[in-house]
Amino acid sequence: MQTALVSWSGGKDSCFAAHQAMQQGLQPKVLLNVLNEAGQISRSHGIPSSILQAQAAAMGLPIHMIAASWQEYEQHFTNALSQLKQQHALTHAIFGDIDLDAHKEWEEKVCNNAGLTAVLPIWHRNRKELVLEMLQWGLETIIVSCNEVMGPSFLGRTLTTDMIAELEALGVDACGENGEYHTLVKNCPLFNHPLKVTTSNPVQHSNYWFTTLKLSEPGFGEI
């Protein structure tokens, strides 16, 4: 069986991409996430490292987290790929992008430099069909950041088919692929137990809203 790392954001797309890759015969061995320079929250979604660790524990996988600025991102990411390839005898790296060509080209480049094959299992899927398939699969995910069109009232809400209709009425992409919103997976068939996460204190940075996330599950502490 071919072995892989998962480029893990903590959100729905990377999670479902891992599932789809497993359906294709790949075996995830480790998750990889990039944190901000302080090493406290994920650079892409603003998720605390403790919650990312709890997700990995629920999947029965290790998670490798690196801190990086945007300027150092590619170098640190490539180095991590090379390190994890050796450590876990990896052949592939799984990514959750759907149709942003620049992202795919970058992922293929860094994987090639590290001697890995990039796999994008949900590439060029219809966005609405894809998010509906995620929900049907059993993925439970909440909105953790969003743009001003959506506003702070969406933060902390669970993504549902009814919400997708709300988003489309606002002109927001159903899957958020244009960056309109980001999510946190609380439960899915890949987890051996659900995560208990609370949201509070919405804050705005530039034209984007974020929520404060706390892990309340016993044994993992709180952030």
Automatic annotation (TrEMBL):
Keyword Hydrolase recorded: yes
GO BP term (any one): protein histidyl modification to diphthamide
UniProt keyword Amino-acid biosynthesis present: no
Domain Diphthamide synthase: 5-215
Alphabetized Pfam families for the sequence: Diphthami_syn_2
Keywords carried by this UniProt record: Hydrolase
GO molecular function: diphthine-ammonia ligase activity; hydrolase activity
InterPro entries listed in its UniProt record: Diphthami_syn_dom, DPH6/MJ0570, Rossmann-like_a/b/a_fold
Transmembrane regions listed in the UniProt entry: none
PANTHER family per record: DIPHTHINE--AMMONIA LIGASE (PTHR12196:SF2), DOMAIN OF UNKNOWN FUNCTION 71 DUF71 -CONTAINING PROTEIN (PTHR12196)
UniProt protein name: Adenosine nucleotide hydrolase
Organism: Flavisolibacter tropicus
